């Protein structure tokens, strides 16, 4: 290991040596060369951060440039705004407000994605009639093109369900109204109507896509239910998953999908959809890209990781798990260098109100009383914040929405992020309609190299 002074000297010498000399004097392999160059760059980054983190470069600080743009206000997003303490508000409505005013499915009590979608798109609370009309429209548009069914059926069962979902969504662009209209030379004021048409068609088809993937991976050879035109989006999704007669799970799914719909624009999946769509790529391609961002373990895949972690804890600790057992397991996770999945957040600094709403749902259901996994989620919530505070790294020691993963009654953990993917379409696609209606431009931030940053700072 080289000392910091030696690394700085090496950095200077690397800069001095000409490209010509490097090209002809060395026979080192690519890997060996990188192994030499990376520590030098790491040291350069460390110095920039510690010595100039707060230095202003143009409109932002060095910390913003090298720190993943945390908290940087640089993006328009209409449907929701996230407050670090209070959590998400959809057009000004908190989660409890939405639970009071947004229509449920006939026979149900929970918010349904259709009413959330209406709110996100329009900023208005729909009537039950408007919600039902939207349910009907989605059901009528919900069937998949034959070639997409064949595409999904051709995937190996071992291909991760999120990869399958992203690929199938991209393939739906075969029928993109936006792309066809663009080729015909549509004018800018028409952009949003074709975007809306694609977005509604995509949301309508997501349950059939996601259910087909579930069937192929976990229950191959079984029949898939057909779409019932009189049912809401999640009623049909639950039917196709094979849980249609489980009212409690269907209601949970409705709430889960409605609440995961939007979390302002800076999160990786929403931001990806927005960025890709700003090139006038159609909504299918834009959302497909978003799904691959969602598939990362620091983002949507965390819900898979939570359940995997919980199941491993259950296996190791057996029955009657105590708070002390969980505490020890949390420390074991942290000391092995892993994050505690389902805890922490890029923006939130309090327990996630979506976590609280889903937890309250489970607490209110007598049939879920005594569920070992729900007990585990609740007990973890009681001890994890103190452990994470003592650990001292995360800025937010509280649960995010993914900490509820185990509350679902099925244990196919690789499927969890797909359900998130069905949901996040509501908000991500809403913004595409608004971006095109408002004529927002191509996103093109300015990047800088570390050398350029240093030069800029020196010349200030
Ligand atoms: C969500 C998450 C990615 C936010 O990242 P972030 O904005 O960089 O969070 P912070 O600023 O609080 O991170 C500061 C440090 O705390 C660590 N940290 C954050 N959350 C942690 C957790 N749950 N367990 C252990 N360490 C955590 C980070 O890894 C980072 O460590 P580093 O300085 O060694 O790189 C992060 O909290 C995390 O990895 N959580 C677990 C995964 C998860 O639940 N994701 C779903 C998010 S909705």
UniProtKB/TrEMBL annotation:
Domain of life according to the entry: Eukaryota
Any GO BP: tricarboxylic acid cycle
Name the species this protein comes from.
Psilocybe cyanescens
Similarity comment: Belongs to the citrate synthase family.
Subcellular localization is given as: Mitochondrion
GO MF terms on file? Answer: acyltransferase activity, acyl groups converted into alkyl on transfer
List the active-site residues: 299, 345, 402
Q: Which NCBIfam families match?
A: cit_synth_euk, PRK09569.1
Question: Keywords assigned by UniProt?
Answer: Mitochondrion, Transferase, Transit peptide
Tell me the protein's name.
Citrate synthase
């Amino acid at each position: 290991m080289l000392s910091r002074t030696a690394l700085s000297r090496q950095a200077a010498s690397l800069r001095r040596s000409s490209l010509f000399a490097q090209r002809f004097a060395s026979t080192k392999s690519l890997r060996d060369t990188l192994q030499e160059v990376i520590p030098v760059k790491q040291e350069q980054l460390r110095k920039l951060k510690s010595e100039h983190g707060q230095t202003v470069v143009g409109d932002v600080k060095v910390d913003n440039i090298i720190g993943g743009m945390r908290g940087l206000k640089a993006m328009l997003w209409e449907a929701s705004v996230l407050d670090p303490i209070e959590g998400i508000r959809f057009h000004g409505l908190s989660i409890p407000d939405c639970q009071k005013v947004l229509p449920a499915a006939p026979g149900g009590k929970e918010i349904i994605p259709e009413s959330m979608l209406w709110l996100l798109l329009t900023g208005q609370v729909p009537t039950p009639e408007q919600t039902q009309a939207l349910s009907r429209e989605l059901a009528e548009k919900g069937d998949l093109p034959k070639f997409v069914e064949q595409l999904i059926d051709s995937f190996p069962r071992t291909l991760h369900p999120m990869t399958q979902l992203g690929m199938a969504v991209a393939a739906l662009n075969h029928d993109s109204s936006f792309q066809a209209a663009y080729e015909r030379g549509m004018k800018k004021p028409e952009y949003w109507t074709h975007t809306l048409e694609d977005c509604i068609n995509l949301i309508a088809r997501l349950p059939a896509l996601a259910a087909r993937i579930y069937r192929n991976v976990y229950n191959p050879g079984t029949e898939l239910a057909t779409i019932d035109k009189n049912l809401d989006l999640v009623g049909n999704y639950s039917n196709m998953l094979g849980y249609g007669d489980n009212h409690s799970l269907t209601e949970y799914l409705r709430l889960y999908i409605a609440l995961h719909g939007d979390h302002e624009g800076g999160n990786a999946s929403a931001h990806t959809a927005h960025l890709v769509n700003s090139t006038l790529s159609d909504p299918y391609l834009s959302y497909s890209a978003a799904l691959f961002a969602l598939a990362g373990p620091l983002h949507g895949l965390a819900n898979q990781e939570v359940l995997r972690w919980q199941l491993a804890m259950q296996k190791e600790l057996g029955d009657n798990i105590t708070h002390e057992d969980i505490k020890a397991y949390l420390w074991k996770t942290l000391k092995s260098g892993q994050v505690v999945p389902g805890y922490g957040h890029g923006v939130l600094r309090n327990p996630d109100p979506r976590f609280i709403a889903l937890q309250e749902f489970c607490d209110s259901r007598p049939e879920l009383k005594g569920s070992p996994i729900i007990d585990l989620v609740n007990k973890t919530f009681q001890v994890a914040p103190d452990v994470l505070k003592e650990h001292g790294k995360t800025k937010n020691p509280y649960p995010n929405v993914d900490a509820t993963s185990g509350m679902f009654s099925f244990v196919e953990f690789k499927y969890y992020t797909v359900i998130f993917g069905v949901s996040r379409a509501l908000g991500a696609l809403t913004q595409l309609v608004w971006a095109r209606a408002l004529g927002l431009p191509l996103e093109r931030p300015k990047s800088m190299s570390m050398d350029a940053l240093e030069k800029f700072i020196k010349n200030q």
